[in-house]
Description:
This protein is an alpha/beta fold and 297 residues long. The chain contains six helices and 14 strands. It has helices at 59-68, 89-97, 189-200, 218-241, 247-254, 263-279, and strands at residues 16-20, 23-27, 40-44, 48-52, 73-78, 100-103, 130-131, 137-139, 144-149, 158-162, 167-171, 206-209, 284-285, 295-296.
Amino acid sequence: VSLSYDLAFEAPYETLIPVAPRIRRLLTHNPSAFTFKGTGVYVIGEDEVAVVDPGPASPEHLSALRAALAGESIRYILVTHTHRDHSPAAQMLKEWSGAKIYAYGPHGLGPTEGGDHMEEGVDRDFMPDVLVRDGDVLAAKDFSIECVFTPGHTSNHMSYALREEKALFTGDHVMGWSSTVILPPDGDMETYLASLEKLLARDNATYWPTHGGPIRKPKAFVRGLLEHRRERERQILQSISEGHATIPAIVRQIYRDVDPRLYGAAGLSVLAHLVHMTRDGRVKTDGTLYLESHFHI
Ligand SMILES: [Zn+2]
C-alpha cells in the first residue's frame, strides 16, 4: 500500500502560477489545521477559462483573485462542495465576471443528507446557477470538463475532470496532505468509500486536490486511502469486541498516540465508521446513532 502524503508542498500565496499544461493555480493565504497550506484555486484553459473552487470570501483573497483574473474570459465557475474555504468567493467572482456558478447543489441536498446541525465551516448561502450531474460535460474553446460525482466528504461533493490532460480536480474527496474528514450526518462513510472505488475505474493521470500538491500515482494513492479506512474498521471492531462500547472509549483506545485535543474530531470519524458498520450489520447499537450511543457486535 502506497499512501504517502506530500508534506513538502509549497507555493507563493495569492499568486496565479502555471502548474501544468492548461492548468494554473493560486494558493489562498488561509493556512490552518484543516486547510494545510491553504485553498488552491485552479484556473483551467487560456483564452476562455474555468475557475475551480474560488475560495473563501476574505478581503485579502478577494482582491488578489480579482487582480489575478483581470483580463481573463471566465466561462465557468465550478464548485466542488459547500465548505467555507471553497465556495463563498464564487458569488463575488460571478458578480465581477458575469459567469455562471456550476455545482451539484446547495449544502445538504445530496443523496445522504440527514441534517447538518453538527457541522462547522459550512457555506449555507451558496446557491449555484446550474446544477450539474455525474457525467455532464462542460465544453469550452480548448478544453472540456466532465463532472464526476464523488459524495462522502459532503453529500454534494463534485469532482471535475479536464479530459484533454487526463487531470481530475478532486476538491476535498482526495487531498494531497492527509485523508479527508467525514463528519456525519452530511458526511457519509459508505458513499465516501464508494466514491473512492469509483475513481479506481477511471484513467486519470494526475489528481489536483484543493489542499496540497498534485497526486501523480492516483490509483495507488486511492488504494492506500481505502486500506487506511479498512484498517480503521478492523480496529473499531476489535475495540468493540473487547468490550469498549462507547465512542469515547473506542477513541481512547485506538487513538492512544494522538493529541487528546483531537479526540473530538476522532470521535466524529469513529461515528462515521459506526454509522456505516451498523447499516451493513457488522455492529449493533441500542437503537440510536450518536456520540453517546452504546455499540456491540
Ligand atoms: Zn471540505
